[in-house]
Amino acid sequence: MSSSIAAFVNKEISLVTLKKNALINAALIYLNSYSVGMSNLGMHTVYNILNSRADTLCERVFFEKKRRQPQSVENRRNLRSFDLLAFSISYELDYLNFFKLMRRIFPEDDLRKRPLMPLVIAGGIVNSVNYQPLSKFCDCIFMGEAEESLPQFMDALSCFENINTKEKKKNFLEKAASINGIFIPGVSDKQKVRSVFIREVDKYPTSSKILTPFTEFSNTFVIEISRGCPWRCNFCVTGAVYRKFRPRSFEVIKKQIDNGLRYTNKIGLMGAAITEHPDIDKIIDYLLRKKALISVSSLRIESAGETLLKALAMSGQKTITFAPEAGSDSLRFSLNKKITNKQILEKINLSKKCGIKKIKLYFMIGLPHETDADIQAIVQLSIDASMILPIKLNVGIFVPKPKTIFAGHVFAGKKRFLAKFKFLRRNFSSSGNIILNLAGIAEAKLEWLFSQADEDFFSNYLENKAL
Ligand code: SF4
To answer: How far is the CA of 198 from the centre of ligand 1 (A)?
Structure first.
């Protein structure tokens, strides 16, 4: 473990109790840095599920570029000494780190035919979008939300005290294949692979389990107040994968706020559509009465109200993030984002009135049916917005993803993106109130290729690339 991770861990406040000895030893692996991994509530959730079991000890592992022999954070153990390697994968580009890490763990082995143990399992949103890319390299893939399937999987595993023969492993995997939301390569029927979702979200409150200064939400107790999204933007994986909007009840959120305030006065609210929560005003009011400092990740523009914006400004949040995605109303409406430029500018004005100092705007280029006029509209909207508040402009590249309504669209070519980027750079070069940040074209192309990959893709890809 690098000295920087050791320094991070020294500053952590953990709400999870670790056992000294356990029947099952699991390594929970995030394929990115400590700060990205610890900003991910899914990572906290799995860590807590596993460590809450009487029979399991779970330790964390983060991807460290320079470490040739990866180790767990808690006890600095070699990863081969675990029973279970559980990979949490949020982004397609993290597949590359998956293979780099696997190569370091199993330096001598064909990654498709590893030793019987440790078991290799994977979960995270990318697997729910497409379970195929890692299916030849994992024993098991979790599809959808793991709050119910993971404990069932662990129950099955604990029945098999020792998986030391091929026969025992086969028996275990056949048993695991009967659990909903679990795909066992070579055993499960591909026609019947389905993601699973929790119906009663109140049964599974989700919040930070470790507080640390070194994340997106520094020393903040983050609470997921809802799952899913009521909007179905045509390009969006979150809306497509987590589907139905499921707000948690005010009572459950209140209890979590009270718990979080035992450790910190900073409370973060998380969810794809927090402003759609039916009790959002009550939640904000409760937080203000408790004198909590409030933060949120991003806001859906049309429903960002005065109460919330004022509370955020009073809590010291200087920047608000909005995602218009497209510059013109017509292109934005075609994405199923039904908000006009006039409404966006009104919200930026309201944000300023409430005390917000900066706006982050997210746009995408390469969208279906996009014209040059739509790119010009990004420029105009950003200039208009920058007359109100300083703007940080992030321009991403549209990557058509499986399961979304835009799944069938093609990824636009490099030449087209370069021309559009050139146009944007030229138009913003003299604008002091706008900071322009453009996405990487090569990365977006890889993201597209990986998201569409079939089960043979990485076998072929790895033969041609040195990791
Ligand atoms: S882009 Fe945001 S609002 Fe639209 S479906 Fe996705 S999460 Fe929901």
So the answer is: 19
Q: How far is the CA of 225 from the centre of ligand 1 (A)?
A: 15
Phi, psi torsion values for 226, nearest 5 degrees: -155, 160
| Cα separation values, 303 from 72, 207, 270, Å | 42, 24, 15
Residue of 229, 235, 277, 338 best suited for mutating to test ligand 1, as the one with most atoms within 8 Å of CB: 229
Q: Indicate whether 273 pLDDT > 60.
A: yes
Give the residue among 278, 287, 281 at the shortest CA–CA distance from 260.
287
Segment 137-154 shows an average pLDDT of 97
pLDDT above 80 (res 7): yes
**Are residues 246 and 226 in contact, defined by beta-carbon separation less than 8 angstroms?**
yes
- Domain spans of the chain? 3-198, 317-467
Ligand 1 site-directed mutation target among 235, 236, 277, 333, most atoms within 8 Å of CB: 236
DSSP 452: T
With residues binned 3-state (H G I as helix, E B as strand, rest as coil), the percentages for the chain, rounded to 5, are 40, 20, 45
In this predicted model, which residue has the larger pLDDT, 29 or 466? Answer: 29
172-190 mean pLDDT: 95
pLDDT at 160: 85
Distance between CA atoms of residues 83 and 343, nearest Å = 54
Domains 3-198 and 317-467 share a fold: no
User: Does pTM surpass 0.90?
Assistant: yes
User: Which tokens in the block code for residue 220?
Assistant: 């903040």
Q: Which atom of ligand 1 is nearest to the CA of 229?
A: 8
Instruction: Give CATH superfamily name and number for 3-198.
Output: Cobalamin-binding domain (3.40.50.280)
Q: What is the pLDDT of residue 217?
A: 86
DSSP per position, 321-375: EEEEESSSHHHHHHTT----HHHHHHHHHHHHHHT--EEEEEEEES-TT--HHHH
CA 304 to ligand 1 centroid distance, Å: 14
DSSP structure string for 418-449: HHHHHHHHHHHTT-TTEEEEE--HHHHHHHHH
Q: Are 377 and 328 in contact (CB under 8 A)?
A: yes
Look at residue 397 in the predicted model and tell me its pLDDT: 97
Query: What is the per-residue pLDDT for 1?
Result: 59
CATH architecture of residue range(s) 317-467: 2-Layer Sandwich (3.30)
**What's the start-to-end Cα distance of the chain, in Å?**
21
Q: What is the pLDDT of residues 14-68, one digit of tens each?
A: 999 999 989 999 999 999 999 999 999 999 999 999 999 999 999 999 998 887 8
With the most atoms of ligand 1 within 8 angstroms of its CB, the residue from 125, 226, 234, 238 to mutate is 238
Ligand 1 binding residues, C-beta < 6 A: 229, 231-233, 236, 238-239, 272-273, 300
